[in-house]
UniProtKB/TrEMBL annotation, chain A:
Protein's name in the database: Electron transfer flavoprotein subunit alpha
UniProt-listed SUPFAM superfamilies: Adenine nucleotide alpha hydrolases-like, DHS-like NAD/FAD-binding domain
InterPro entries linked: DHS-like_NAD/FAD-binding_dom (IPR029035), ETF_a/b_N (IPR014730), ETF_a/FixB (IPR001308), ETF_alpha_N (IPR033947), ETF_asu_C (IPR014731), Rossmann-like_a/b/a_fold (IPR014729)
Stated role: The electron transfer flavoprotein serves as a specific electron acceptor for other dehydrogenases. It transfers the electrons to the main respiratory chain via ETF-ubiquinone oxidoreductase (ETF dehydrogenase).
Residues that, per the record, bind FAD: 209, 234-235, 248-252, 265-272, 286
Molecular functions per Gene Ontology: electron transfer activity; flavin adenine dinucleotide binding
CDD domains for the chain: ETF_alpha (cd01715)
Superkingdom in the source lineage: Bacteria
Alphabetical list of Gene3D superfamilies matching this protein: HUPs (3.40.50.620), TPP-binding domain (3.40.50.1220)
Cofactor dependence: FAD
Family: Belongs to the ETF alpha-subunit/FixB family.
Ranges where the Electron transfer flavoprotein alpha/beta-subunit N-terminal domain occurs: 5-189
UniProtKB/TrEMBL annotation, chain B:
Known role: The electron transfer flavoprotein serves as a specific electron acceptor for other dehydrogenases. It transfers the electrons to the main respiratory chain via ETF-ubiquinone oxidoreductase (ETF dehydrogenase).
InterPro entries in UniProt: ETF_a/b_N (IPR014730), ETF_b (IPR012255), ETF_beta_N (IPR033948), Rossmann-like_a/b/a_fold (IPR014729)
Keywords, in A-Z order: Electron transport, Transport
MF terms in GO: electron transfer activity
Family named by the database record: Belongs to the ETF beta-subunit/FixA family.
Cofactors that this protein relies on: AMP
Protein name, as recorded: Electron transfer flavoprotein subunit beta
Gene3D superfamilies named among the record's database cross-references: HUPs
Domain Electron transfer flavoprotein alpha/beta-subunit N-terminal: 23-211
SUPFAM superfamilies: Adenine nucleotide alpha hydrolases-like
Native organism: Salinisphaera hydrothermalis (strain C41B8)
GO BP annotations listed: carboxylic acid catabolic process
Subunit field text: Heterodimer of an alpha and a beta subunit.
Length: 317, 248
């Protein structure tokens, strides 16, 4: 049986998202010699394609440049991807399980009449995978029907980014599919910061309800800056308005796998833990010695975060 | 304006799930179930629109066993006008659920189909976009705010990069994120009133929907366990441990 995989590139403002290289790492376990990437973008598509072409394992990068691709709406992109899959005779189409992929891939699957595998965390065979259910408290092994295209999203925290150094072919692709007018992009409100990206940073410091306020969160940012970490938060901290939504870590926020995760004033609800299970070392600081976070933490320290952070800053110099 | 809301029965989010020793799934007998939290947010949203005079009928829909009738009763207690129970003893996967929702949407002709962004049992996060695809409708997923107009909606979406705003023409499928609203507590008089509201019973056969291609579940197992950790007594000890592991 021969397989051919199409990866849908996730990108923003002219740059490829690292989730694409992680998705490719997963694809390498399915069919290492037959991985193509599709970049749907506006006039910057060729530059993004060049970035994708450097990722190991990629055979050909196709780019479809169209003003309608300026913003990634699923209603515009899904029919085009379905057309590209059919035309290219692909057996698999994969995207990252970022909000981009979560919005888009099920729409592609339905157009192709295929069931979808959400959140691949391990590949057994080209049609058998492990995926998390119940907030990662169980792992379900599933088999997808071999008689249709396999559509899936990849759990990025389970795969390190595929290495660079490749020189894959780059080709433009015409996709003559009507653009629906029923979905219109209005705007994107982005938090800009010089801090490392939460989803890819090797170190993450996060705060929960215990931090107490938006002003108090400053000490979390300061400490993170001191050790070069990205900053995350629990849902309670986001809901209380201490930090913006894109910092939420957990079942319904970002799933991350940093080498070091340090959390302050987070109790350790299962929904939060779902986001950090793949972290290398988890450090928890909480004033309640019975907080469930200590059951999963590699290193726990009981105490008041407002006493401990200044001490930590001094100790790390 | 008519709004449809899907409501899934799922193991309550506070329950620590138990995996069956034969690997065939998780223990559901005798375990507390409730409405999927994202669906509760969807129901709350629809009722707020009704209270604000923005819509005049809210219909709750579930696909599931007889017991899922409980979740429909809760939806009616929130203030939904009526409910449709598509009965099946076997759980359906998202592509089949989407086929059922398409058939119901064609019968009911709502302007908005509100769904949860994900069911916290299968964590699939597929049914909303799949339903929109089958209907050829616009979709706006992960909504944290929705402004309804006569023939369109302006939706703010929680995306990885921040907050995205889309305008979608109606009818549309919109899926809810956690920060859209905080569902109310149900009051006894409303729970009593809900008992008299109509629940129409249906089935895949009656709707003319064939089960779609599906994934086969081979095994359910516990996740890899992390090694148990240590407690330290001081910041110095913590920093020493981190330096030992070359993490600082
Ligand atoms: C469907 C659903 C999805 C969810 N998704 C997510 C998700 O993606 N991510 C997520 O995080 N949550 C999620 N939640 C919410 C989750 O259940 C918890 O409510 C949330 O994680 C709690 O956040 P917290 O730990 O910051 O707050 P709390 O549980 O209130 O804990 C605060 C902790 O801070 C400690 N503390 C207080 N003051 C101090 C101090 N001075 N020093 C040290 N410690 C202190 C306290 O001892 C306590 O342990 C979800 C819930 C549902 C129902
Ligand atoms: N069997 C079902 N009955 C009612 N609603 C469902 C069902 N399956 C999925 N849904 C809806 O689709 C959403 C997403 O589910 P899922 O795609 O399984 O994560 C849920 O929040 C529900 O609103």
């Amino acid at each position: 049986m021969s397989y051919k995989i199409l990866i849908i590139a996730d990108h923003l403002q002219g740059a490829l998202n690292e989730s694409t290289a992680r998705t490719i790492a997963c694809a390498q376990q399915i069919a290492p010699d037959a991985i193509d990437v599709l970049v749907l973008a506006d006039d910057g598509a060729a530059a993004i394609a060049a970035e994708a072409a450097r990722i190991d394992g990629v055979a050909t990068v196709y780019h479809a440049d169209d003003a309608a691709h300026a913003h990634p709406t699923a209603a515009v992109l899904a029919p085009r991807i379905a057309a590209a899959v059919e035309r290219g005779g692909y057996s698999h189409v994969l995207g990252p399980n970022t909000t981009f992929g979560k919005d888009l891939m099920p729409r592609v699957a339905a157009l192709l009449g295929a069931p979808m595998v959400t959140d691949i965390m391990a590949v057994h065979t080209p049609h058998e995978f492990d995926r998390p259910i119940y907030a990662g408290n169980a792992v379900n092994t599933v088999a997808a029907p071999a008689d249709r295209v396999l559509v899936a999203s990849v759990r990025c925290a389970s795969y390190p980014a595929a290495a660079g150094g490749n020189e894959a072919a780059i080709e433009p692709l015409e996709l003559d599919v009507e653009v629906p007018s029923h979905t219109r992009f209005v705007g994107l409100e982005q938090q800009t910061s010089d801090r490392p990206d939460l989803q890819t940073a090797p170190k993450v410091v996060s705060g929960g309800r215990g931090v107490g306020s938006e002003e108090n969160f400053r000490i979390i940012y300061n400490f993170a800056d001191k050790i070069g970490a990205a900053v995350g938060a629990s849902r309670a901290a986001v809901d209380a308005g201490y930090v913006p939504n894109d910092m939420q870590v957990g079942q319904t926020g970002k799933i991350i796998s940093p080498t070091l995760y340090i959390c302050f004033g987070i109790s350790g609800a299962i929904q939060h833990l779902a986001g950090i299970k793949d972290a290398g070392t988890i450090v928890a600081i909480n004033k309640d010695e019975d907080a469930p976070i200590f059951e999963i933490a590699d290193i726990g320290l009981v105490g008041d975060l407002f006493d401990i952070i200044p001490e930590l800053e001094r100790a790390v110099g | 304006m008519k709004v449809l809301v899907s409501v899934k029965r799922a193991i309550d989010y506070n329950v620590r799930i138990q995996i069956k020793s034969d690997g065939s799934g998780v223990v559901t007998d005798g375990v507390k179930h409730s409405m999927n939290p994202f669906d509760e947010i969807a129901v709350e949203q629809a009722i707020r629109w009704k209270e604000a005079g923005l819509c005049d009928e809210v219909v709750a829909v579930t696909i599931g066993p007889d017991a899922a009738g409980e979740q429909l009763r809760s939806a009616l207690a929130f203030g939904c006008d009526r409910a449709i129970h598509v009965k099946t003893e076997e759980p359906v996967q998202p592509l089949t659920a989407a086929g059922v929702f398409k058939a119901i949407a064609e019968n009911e002709q709502p302007q908005v189909f509100l769904m949860g962004k994900q069911a916290i049992d299968d964590d699939a996060s597929q049914t909303g976009p799949m339903t929109a695809a089958l209907l050829g409708w616009p979709q706006a997923t992960f909504a944290s705010s929705i402004e309804l107009a006569d023939d369109s909606a302006r939706v703010t979406r929680e995306v990885d990069a921040g907050l995205e705003t889309l305008d979608v023409d109606l009818p549309a499928v919109i899926t809810t994120d956690l920060r859209l609203n905080e569902p109310r507590y149900l009051k006894l008089p409303n729970i009593m009133k809900a008992k008299k509201k109509p629940i129409e019973s249906s089935s895949l056969d009656e709707l003319g929907v064939a089960p779609a291609a599906a994934l086969e579940s081979l095994k359910t197992a516990p996740p890899p366990q992390r090694e148990s950790g240590v407690r330290v007594e001081s910041v110095d000890e913590l920093v020493a441990k981190l330096k030992e592991k070359s993490l600082l």
